[in-house]
Design brief:
Elements lengths: L12 H8 L7 H13 L3 H20 L6 E5 L9 H8 L4 E6 L2 H10 L7 E6 L5 H5 L12 E5 L8 H13 L6 E7 L6 H13 L9 H6 L5 E2 L5 E2 L20 E7 L2
Helix pairs in contact: 1-2, 3-4
Length: about 260
């Protein structure tokens, strides 16, 4: 698959997410897109921060309690605080992490900023989630005979087709050995008021949004055959929340499902 060209006039989810997180690595088109979505869903920025916090807690669990030392983070986004390798290597410096994104700007920043510990390793692939076979063929620093933490944070909802999304996730999970874990988050309108849900639906119909939410039942389909880790499928803000955190968003504010599951 041909990767997207570097086009500053077309909004990109990674750069829009960077804008919502308060970063500076974005362009006018990304900010305009972010502002339009925020009009329909005022808590968009808070949800972005909640999703990032979920990533940190999930990686902390995987590197700590689950003992994983390999991570495949697809849909990486632009580097910010508490990236996957930083959390993992703080717990286990020997951890190896492969980041994957299809935005050349993300990869340029990643190669410059995401430096590994001396005993670990990081690698960056400019690949597309929609071509999972190519991703799997490029994981030379990961040992696929040993457990891997597959991270799909706030990326599947950019795929309109549930069937395509399930096929992609299944292809990736099926390539991983027993003891691997799938970590996912995905936008949902299940928690929203009827008014907010109507706004979201209209944004999709009008083309202002490229985020296709999933119901709980649809999100659960990605974990069929896997062993969900307690507390199961919940709003990202409710997955093992940190009592010391500065923010404690409600499910309405952090309208993303999050879950971790073990490959049996």
């Amino acid at each position: 698959m041909t990767l997207e060209r570097f086009d500053t006039g077309t909004p990109h989810p990674a750069r829009r997410y960077n804008y919502w997180l308060g970063g500076k690595d974005n362009f006018a088109a990304d900010r305009e897109s972010g502002d339009l979505l925020a009009k329909s869903y005022p808590a968009a920025r808070l949800a972005a921060r909640a999703n990032r916090a979920f990533l940190g807690r999930a990686v902390g669990y995987l590197a700590g309690e689950a003992g994983l030392r390999q991570f495949l983070d697809i849909g990486t986004g632009l580097p910010t605080a508490e990236n996957t390798h930083e959390v993992a290597q703080r717990i286990a410096p020997e951890s190896r992490i492969v980041y994957v994104d299809n935005d050349p700007m993300v990869m340029a920043h990643a190669r410059a900023l995401l430096t590994s510990t001396p005993s670990g390793e990081t690698r960056y692939l400019e690949q597309d989630l929609r071509d999972p076979a190519s991703i799997l063929e490029s994981l030379d620093i990961l040992d696929l005979s040993q457990p891997v933490g597959l991270m799909l944070l706030a990326v599947i909802h950019f795929l309109p087709s549930q069937d395509e999304a399930r096929s992609i996730v299944s292809t990736l999970v099926d390539a991983l050995p027993s003891g691997s874990h799938l970590t996912m988050s995905c936008a949902t309108t299940d928690f929203l008021t009827p008014e907010l849900k109507a706004n979201w639906d209209e944004s999709l119909r009008s083309g202002r949004s490229d985020v296709h939410p999933r119901t709980r039942a649809e999100f659960a389909e990605f974990f069929e055959g896997l062993e969900l880790i307690d507390p199961g499928i919940v709003a990202v803000s409710e997955w093992r929340p940190d009592p010391a955190a500065e923010e404690h968003p409600t499910p309405v504010e952090a309208s993303l499902f999050g879950a971790l599951a073990r490959v049996p």
